Amino acid sequence: MKFDLSPIHIVNDISKEEFEKNYLNARKPLIIKNMSKTWPAYDKWNLDYMKSVVGDRTVPLYDSSKADPSKPINASAAKMKFADYVELIRNTPTDLRIFLFDPIKQAPKLLDDYRAPKELMGGFLDSYPNMFFGGKGSVTFLHYDIDLAHIFHTHFNGRKYVILFENKWKERLYQIPYATYALEDYDVEKPDFDKFPALQGVKGVEAFLEHGDTLFMPTGYWHWMKYLDGSFSISLRAWDKSLAVKVKSLYNLTLQRKFDDFMKANFREKYMTWKENLAIKRANRALASQLPY
Questions:
Q1: Which of 38, 85, 99, 120 has the smallest C-beta neighbourhood within 10 Å, fewest atoms?
Q2: What is the three-class DSSP state of 285?
């Protein structure tokens, strides 16, 4: 069994007016095929090039194992020289990923290789955007970004499969309380609706990214990603204009995160068990109430 997934909208190019009306203001995801084709990165960025500019750096690696309740959500599983990791994902399927890696600080010349799409919107945040690397078969767990930014996610050197859900489905997705990720006990590609009944009827969007494709993810969108090849992406983040979204972002990054880290450090498995049970109760309640309407 699978989620009820619709194909994502895809355009080659788009005007600011059309983007604002149909995607930004409407909070709808989109793939823009040609946005990166004017970037030097489109021709330059591959595994060999990234290895040549950042190869000596030791980087943290993440796997698909369930989060340790005593550690922060982004605790690494291992470390490796970046050059060795590139060779690993070039030749071998692996669930090891590089998460929130910032090679641009190590190689500032990469700043000249891409452009924030300011012709579509303003409010871009990062001087040094984050990059993400994964081996064939590696998976990014289902979550939404804690800062609630809009994301322009451009992929390089291979293919990636993405499943997206509007934030309104958060309880039906078994969101973990005081966190921005879902219960990790179900398979997003093939969910068990008998064991997790609240997932039945949840509607989402699916997308396949190829080299140079840019995925626009509106604020708060849940996303799950699977690397179909050893490849990598860059995410450019921009503020939403809504004051309410900015206030919620500040709350997530300060009070909620500090409270969650404190509870994890002091109560560990007991706290995590309570959170998972509460996620299940909330999901069942939302299902019984047929939420969201």
A1: 38
A2: helix
Residue 272: what residue type?
Answer: M
Backbone phi, then psi, for 144, in 5-degree steps?
-125, 160
The pLDDT value recorded for residue 78 is: 84
Q: Contact at 8 Å (CB) between 46 and 65? A: no
Domains of the chain: 4-288 (2.60.120.650)
Residues 26-37 pLDDT 10s: 999 999 999 999
Kindly state the tokens that stand for 167.
């934030």
- The one-letter amino acid code at 12 reads N
Q: Provide the whole-model pTM.
A: 0.94
**Spans of the chain below 70 pLDDT:** 67-75, 100, 293
Reduce the DSSP state of residue 242 to 3 states and report it: coil
79 is written with which tokens?
Answer: 């470390």
Distance CA(142)–CA(222), nearest Å, equals: 7
